[in-house]
Amino acid sequence: MDMQVQIFGASFSTLVRSVMLCCEEKGVTYHIGMEIDGQEIKRKGVDHLALHPFGKMPVLAHGAHRLFETGPICRYIDACFEGPALQPSDLYQRALVDQWSQAISCYVDHTLVRQYLLEFAFPKGDKGEVRLDKVAEAEPEVISMLTLLEKQLGEQIFICGTDYSMADALLTPMLDYLAALPHADRLLPPDSLLTSYITRMRQRPSATAVLK
């Protein structure tokens, strides 16, 4: 298909970055921004809600097609375009990738991004400062989630096995932000499997194009 792929969303968003990573891995040219077909769209305005009834991002525009929710968008990109597959052909392995993609989008995102990273990105203290009490409160759950992810990763190269998948595209932006925190060493020790994993993911051409 030669219709332009447009990603509606802010490029700093972890989920928007996941869609961008999928496009980069597939070699798909895309436009990223807060507009569709050159028309600027106000966040949570009428036009945004027409694209995404819950006022979230990303939204994919491809010709006349419109899709919201990151998982379906990534699967659509994988199915529509040539390039390395982001989902295994084996049905069970594909289900495992889908399982972990869903878990990352839901549970991992909630713990790492919503409860933790957003406090650093958009501090909500009375004077605009990071609420360190909220950070300390969330940190045990963050460490527990990272332990779970490290157990799933094990000695594998990628989160679901030997091949890069959409699950990696979903996880990488979250861990990239986490690893950039000043105190990252206490969450992701230098000798941990997850630290090696995010180092590998950052070295991929797709990541060098997206994780800026």
TrEMBL record:
Keywords of the record: Transferase
SUPFAM superfamilies, per the entry: GST C-terminal domain-like, Thioredoxin-like
InterPro entries in alphabetical order: Glutathione-S-Trfase_C-like, Glutathione-S-Trfase_C_sf, Glutathione_S-Trfase, Glutathione_S-Trfase_N, Thioredoxin-like_sf
Molecular functions (GO terms): glutathione binding; glutathione transferase activity
The EC number(s) this enzyme carries: 2.5.1.18
EC class of the enzyme, as a word: transferase
Transferase recorded as keyword: yes
Domain GST N-terminal: 3-85
Entry GO terms, CC: cytoplasm
Top-level taxon of origin: Bacteria
CDD domains for this protein: GST_C_family (cd00299)
Domain GST C-terminal intervals: 90-212
Protein name per Swiss-Prot or TrEMBL: glutathione transferase
Native species: Neptunomonas antarctica
Lineage, broadest ranks: Bacteria, Pseudomonadati, Pseudomonadota, Gammaproteobacteria, Oceanospirillales
